[in-house]
Design brief:
By secondary structure, the protein is of the alpha+beta class. The chain is 70% helix and 9% strand. It has helices spanning 3-69, 75-96, 101-129, 132-142, 146-224, 238-295, 302-330, 342-353, 372-388, 446-457; strands at residues 338-341, 359-362, 367-370, 396-404, 407-414, 461-465, 471-478. Helix 8 (342-353) runs parallel beside helix 9.
Length: 481
């Protein structure tokens, strides 16, 4: 599966969880809203019920006061109630709705109240007219508690109405709290799932990409070290193309390097054979000149003798160049690493190369696990170079070392003739020399050998010098152990 598809799936899952969370919260909020609306409506129903019941009780009290005192002012509340109570009933009917128990109770209260109004209106009318009908109504109704029974019945029904409302209200209050709790729990669950899935997706994708990139970096690093490995990648995504390209590059490099090594080996063999074979005619020429000088010394003219003296010098220089070429060809030969005491190595080299008249200063040098031959060639050529270009008087050579990070930095400094700035890079080219071409010591191969060794080992070398002020060569070398 491609990385883009995996990332898309991860984001899709997070989005789906967010949608599910939003949908759940929406449904829960609707329930909360409905319960809240019901509680608000219930509050209005209870308030209106109390108001209606209180108005009916006030009407009843007004009628009793009138009959007890015969004071018509008591009837003001009664007549006021006749106007307001129907409105209260109408409001309550709207709040309660239809086809439910409370509506039936409310309708029965309304019927009882109308019965009471009809009864009390007859009593009041008869009382005002002082007719015999009042006495009849008094005996048949008032004395037998007809109105009181109606009022008690109304009170009971109001209590039942309020009890049902309070019970329903309590249920909805519980439902409201339950909805709020569920909303909180579901929100917490979905939020946790969203964070968990998002976090896990990010970690998975980051770790997967990082591991695969690290594996590719490791392969690239091994390739840079000459080990041409490949990546086993069975995923079909964007990084697979990079892995495939890296594998192709590794195989091609392996093939090309192998071919180059073969060609290089052939060239080294060719150079070695040619150089070795060239020595034979040079020795022959040198021998012939020697024989001529020995056998015909009396017959040779002075001019011819000068020419004959030049030929051995040139053949010796030619032999020195061939020997340098042989040394240069041998550099590619790999030798096993071993524990090398650099103090002993340098001491042996200086004892053979550096004249006793030189002032020689050597620091305490480390022990390294490395190729002895390569390091010996380095020091031998650099010290030899310092000796060749030394001043005739007070010649001085300093060999120092310091540890810099994971490698050592060696320096060979002399107080010789120095090197002009324009030749600092040119001196590392083969057969380039600052001495005259006819001088035996100067073949122009030594520093070329040094540079080739340094490049093959992946190290660095640089020169600091001014004309007439001496030269300092500094190179780095790692401990293979």
């Amino acid at each position: 599966m491609k990385l883009s598809t995996q990332i898309l799936w991860a984001f899709t899952l997070v989005i789906l969880l967010s949608i599910a969370d939003s949908y759940t919260n929406y449904n829960m909020s609707k329930k909360v809203q409905l319960n809240s609306q019901f509680l608000s409506k219930s509050e209005a129903i209870i308030r209106n019920s109390n108001k209606t019941h209180r108005a009916i009780l006030e009407m009843q009290s007004a009628v009793r006061g009138y009959f007890l005192t015969n004071d018509t002012t008591f009837l003001d509340e009664y007549y006021q109630g006749i106007k307001t109570v129907p409105k209260f009933f109408q409001e309550q009917q709207i709040l309660v709705g239809k086809n439910n128990t409370q509506r039936s109770i409310l309708d029965s209260i309304s019927v009882l109240h109308n019965q009471w109004l009809a009864y009390t209106s007859k009593l009041i009318q008869a009382r005002n007219q002082n007719t015999k009908s009042y006495e009849v109504l008094f005996e048949t109704g008032l004395k037998k508690h007809y109105g009181k029974n109606i009022n008690d019945n109304i009170t009971q029904k109001f209590k039942r109405f309020d009890k049902i409302e309070y019970k329903t209200r309590k249920h909805h209050s519980t439902m409201l709290l339950h909805s709020l709790e569920k909303t909180r729990i579901f929100s917490l669950i979905f939020l946790s799932l969203t964070i968990f899935v998002g976090f896990c997706s990010i970690i998975y994708i980051v770790i997967m990409i990082t591991n695969r990139i690290n594996s590719m970096v490791q392969v690239a690093d091994t390739i840079s070290k000459g080990k041409f490995t490949v990546i086993e990648d069975y995923r079909n995504d964007e990084l697979s193309a990079l892995a495939a390209s890296l594998n192709i590059m590794s195989r091609r490099l392996e093939k090309n390097i192998h071919e180059l090594e073969n060609k290089n080996e052939e060239l080294n063999k060719f150079a070695y054979v040619v150089s070795h074979d060239l020595k034979a005619p040079l020795r022959g020429i040198y021998n012939v000149i020697t024989w001529i000088e020995e056998d015909f010394s009396q017959e040779v003219s002075p001019n011819l003798k000068n020419y004959l003296d030049i030929i051995p010098k040139r053949t010796q220089r030619m032999e020195a160049l061939i020997n340098g070429l042989l040394d240069y060809a041998r550099i590619n030969r790999k030798t096993p690493s071993e524990q090398v005491n650099i103090n002993t190595l340098v001491a042996d080299i200086t004892q053979l190369i550096v004249p006793r008249t030189f002032i020689l200063t050597i620091d305490q040098l480390p022990e390294l696990y490395t190729e002895r031959l390569k390091l010996e060639q380095l020091f031998s050529n650099l010290i030899s170079n310092a000796v060749k270009y030394a001043k005739p008087e007070n010649a001085r050579i300093e060999i120092r070392c310091k540890k810099v990070g994971s490698f050592y930095e060696f320096s060979i400094k002399d107080n010789g003739i120095g090197i002009d700035q324009e030749y600092h890079q040119k001196i590392f080219e083969i057969f380039q020399t600052l001495r005259e071409k006819n001088e035996v010591e100067s073949t122009g191969v030594g520093l070329a050998i040094v540079k080739k060794i340094i490049d093959e080992q992946g190290e660095n070398i640089y020169v600091q010098s001014k004309l007439g002020e001496g030269t300092e060569f500094t190179f780095t070398w790692r401990n293979n152990k």
